[in-house]
Amino acid sequence: MAIETIRQVSGTVLPLSGDNIDTDRIIPARFLRSVSFEGLEQHLFADDRAQVDALGGAQHPFSDSRYDGATILVVNANFGCGSSREHAPQAIRRRGLRAVVGESFSEIFFGNSVALGLPCVTAAPEAVDTLMQMVARDPAVQVAVDLSELQLTAGTHRFPISMPPAARDGFLDGSWDATGLLLDRYEDVEAVAARLPYVR
Amino acid sequence: MTLLQKVWDAHTVRKLPNGQTQLFIGLHLVHEVTSPQAFDMLRARGWKVRYPSRTVATVDHIVPTRDQRRPFMDVMAEDMLSALERNCREAGVPLLDLNSGSQGIVHVIGPELGITQPGMTIACGDSHTSTHGAFGAVAFGIGTSQVRDVLASQCLALDPLKVRRIQVSGMLASGVYAKDIILEIIRRLGVNGGVGYAYEYAGDTIDRLSMDERMTICNMSIEGGARVGYVNPDETTFDYLRGRRFAPQGEAFDAAVTWWRSMASDTDAHYDDTVRLDAGAIRPTVTWGINPGQSVYIDERLPRPADLEPAARASLAEALDFMGFQGGDPIKGTRIDVAFVGSCTNARLSDLREAARVVRGHHVAPHVKALVVPGSQGVRLAAEREGLDRVFTEAGFDWRNAGCSMCLAMNQDRLEGREVCASSSNRNFKGRQGSPTGRTLLMSPAMVAAAAIAGEVVDVREMTRGH
Q1: Whether residues B300 and B201 fall in one domain
Q2: pLDDT higher than 70, residue B257
Q3: Please, is B328 exposed, middle or buried when counting C-beta atoms within 10 Å of its C-beta (0-12, 13-18, 19+)?
Q4: Banded pLDDT at B465 (limits 50, 70, 90)
Q5: Quick one: B299 and B350 in the same domain?
Q6: Is the pLDDT of residue B215 over 90?
Q7: Is the pTM of this model over 0.90?
Q8: Alpha-carbon distance B103 to B377, whole Å?
Q9: Which of A59, B13, B269, B440 could cross-link to B22 by cystine, CB 3.0-4.6 Å?
């Protein structure tokens, strides 16, 4: 496996407000009826988009062409809760988004994202609010998420961000794809298995 | 030490350079939705399934619950099952398929076949894997890349978890069930209150619960944000496992019990947090919103935006708007269109018995579509031996084959339009039951049965009075 380090993600932002956005909303279950992840990005927020867009007011951020080409998704609290479906971060990444900034994330969503090379960083609620307001005023605002400095820059603003050290190290040194590491020194694994009374 | 620490230590391969633990996974459960891409990734990298003997597969999410003849009418479902069959055959992984007599929802069959045992680490590409914690296992839901990791290495790289002990004491009132306990816990601690924690459920109330009831509670840990939930193994656990097909037999069973007992939390274990709950105060609970924390007791009214902190008002308004409810409305009397008894939360034999007890001698309201989907072929057969199928069908319920069904509507069983469903499942998320605008009210199986008969949300304690 080629080692890919991820130190910084920069570009424009797609702001998506709301707490507790679950993975059923990110990618409804009917789109999981497939043996591959291909094309999932077309169905991101399919039902939310249809409902918001039908109202005729502001479009859903994922339908809004002002955010086409965004590379950073900004969300509120407990993003990605519910189902463990990796289809959710897969679809987000396949849409071209390369980092997620939020107040907090569900654990399974966070872990799935790490495994795909999609860093999720947390920021204070006030910082997320400010960022969303800036982007609403000017969708072209350039944002940089810096994992080595743990800092987010948006125009002239700077905000601290955080990420659990293990995940951050993985992105910085390119070891975020864990499988290789787990297969290393396999005799240790076999020794543990042999010690367990229920593994024969 | 807590059970979590003991199981964690027993399965630790090594500390990884990044501070995570490489943990050996003693049992990997596989199903058709989250595994095909993982098997493809394995093939692409030229890796083999390392421990096929510690891996078990079944088919649950996409199976039709009416006509199960192959090939399925549903082409996508047929493709997914075919892929699972091929992958299992090539890798030598046992598949409990539709002809096995043992097929069912993965979280129902693991326990009922005795595959799930105390002290194990268990992983499955499904968030409700926490169910298996009822046996004193440490069980994680994982994504597809991690399914690949477990297939290839039988290991996961994980951050350590904190442990919160949830101490539940007191007698449950009649008509109040394990489902109401876990809905109460989620309502109190929040849908993200458990992030970073394993929940240890303890106390005299939990001690008295059957294994089925403990599974209901552990199952919904993830709805409270806790990826892992468990109950310490005790005599109830051992009695349940004795004689089950894949449990140790004879002397090996006694030896296993000694080990299982040793894995339980010590009385002087340290907890990162402790929460106490009075079970006697819990009343039948119904969700009214779009996450499992948005619930009220049957005799309560929905919250009004003005009653809440400003920060919480937007979520409340969004939920009320989606559900078409007003703050201050009573939940009792809410008209329903569909009643669903099923899912890995509440489709075990005892759940069906409780629902049947309410249904017996009544008929489903004329405007309600009602269905019972047993959690497994084993549950279905056991229920039929007791005549529960006739109780349900005579009352106007559909009696279906085992699967996940309308919990997440990946098969043909789904809500239509704005239908309201009284459901014994675990998630009331927007669109969860197959219609983007469909609405879900979560409750115990007995409450679902009562709602099916009344045609609206009612208090099961009033329905069963005098029985």
Answers
A1: no
A2: yes
A3: exposed
A4: low
A5: yes
A6: yes
A7: yes
A8: 6
A9: B13
Residue B101 lies in a domain: yes
CB spacing of A24 vs B152 below 8 angstroms: no
The verdict on B249 and B345 lying in the same domain is: no
Q: Is B296 found in the same domain as B410?
A: yes
Domain limits for position B112: 3-263
Which residues of chain A are within 8 Å of residue B145 when distances are taken between CB atoms? 86, 112, 115-116
Residue B275 domain flag: no
Cα–Cα dist B350/B133, whole Å = 19
Where does the pLDDT of residue A178 fall: very low under 50, low under 70, confident under 90, or very high at 90 and above?
Answer: confident
User: Would you state the pLDDT for residue A181?
Assistant: 87
Q: In this predicted structure, what is the pLDDT of residue B466?
A: 46
**Are A100 and A88 contacting, i.e. CB atoms less than 8 angstroms apart?**
no
φ, ψ at B114 (rounded to 5°): 80, 15
Q: Does B325 touch chain A (CB under 8 A)?
A: no
Query: What's the pLDDT score for residue B467?
Result: 44
Q: Please give the Cα distance from A168 to A49 (Å, whole number).
A: 32
Partners of residue B10 in chain A, C-beta under 8 Å: 195-196
At B429-461, the pLDDT tens digits run: 999 999 999 999 999 999 999 999 999 999 999
Share of chain A above pLDDT 90, in %: 92
Is residue B156 in a domain? Answer: yes
With CB atoms and an 8 Å threshold, state whether B149 touches A82: no
* Residue range B154-178: mean pLDDT, rounded: 97
Residues B232 and B104 in one domain: yes
Q: Among residues B49, B43, B57, which one has the least CA distance to residue B150?
A: B49
Q: For position B312, what pLDDT does the model report?
A: 82
Instruction: List the single best residue of B127, B315, B322, B418 to mutate versus A (max A Cβ within 10 A).
Output: B127
Percent of chain A whose predicted confidence (pLDDT) is above 70: 99
Q: Which residues pair with A8 in a beta bridge?
A: A146
Where exactly are the structural domains of chain A?
A: 8-174
Distance CA B19, CA B36 (A): 30
The predicted pLDDT at position A2 comes to 52
- Please determine, for the modelled complex, whether the ipTM score is greater than 0.85: yes
CATH number of A8-174: 3.20.19.10
Instruction: Say which of B80, B148, B153 has its CB closest to residue A33.
Output: B80
Residue B148 Cα, gap to closest chain A Cα (Å): 8
| pLDDT at residue B53 greater than cutoff 90 | yes
Chain B residues in contact with A87 by the CB 8 A cut-off are 144
Looking at the fold, whether B167 and B50 belong to one and the same domain comes out as yes
How many A/B residue pairs have CB atoms within 8 Å?
198
As a whole number, the mean pLDDT across chain B is: 97
Q: How many residues does chain A have?
A: 200
Boundary (domain end) residue, out of B233, B263, B293: B263
Query: Is B196 touching A (CB cutoff 8 A)?
Result: yes
CB contact under 8 A, A182 and B37: no
Could you tell me the end-to-end alpha-carbon distance of chain A, in angstroms, rounded to an integer?
32
With CA atoms as reference, report the closest residue to B153 among B24, B31, B261: B24
CATH code where residue B103 lies: 3.30.499.10
Termini Cα distance of chain B: 46
pLDDT digits (tens, 9 = 90+) for B184-202: 999 999 999 999 999 999 9
- Tell whether the model's pLDDT for residue A104 goes beyond 70: yes
Write out the two tokens for B45.
Answer: 């990298």
- A36/B192 Cβ within 8 A: no
Q: Which of residues 60-89 of B touch A (CB under 8 A)?
A: 61-62, 76-77, 79-80, 83
Kindly determine whether residue A166 and residue B159, on different chains, have CB atoms separated by under 8 Å: yes
Asked if residues B16 and B149 have their Cβ atoms less than 8 Å apart, the reply is no
